[in-house]
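Please study the protein below:
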Amino acid sequence: MDSPLSFRVISAIFRTPLQDIKPSIIASLKKLGTDYVDLFLVHSPHGHDVRVTLPAVWKEMENIKNEGLAKSIGVSNYKVEDLRITLESAKIAPAVNQVSFTSLPSDRVYNGMYYR
């Protein structure tokens, strides 16, 4: 009987050096006991020289998808300009741009965590 439960495996990189992106997902897959993730995200464009780094990071993400390590690849917390820079050289468009939304005052939210 098929299980009524369904889940997706999602992983992300955050400020991971370019040369460590593939080893990072391979280590995650090993820990998760699976051959692929359903979605692999670049968590944030912040902290990088976006004109140089974003296209290079995205090319590595495309390689990971093409190798079957991720079914889909996407970004998180990208502004329109970050997406434009990424898409200029992309062969595969990001499947998603995951963004945070909260009704809390911005001075009470830090890195997605609520502070009183």
In short: The mean pLDDT is 84.
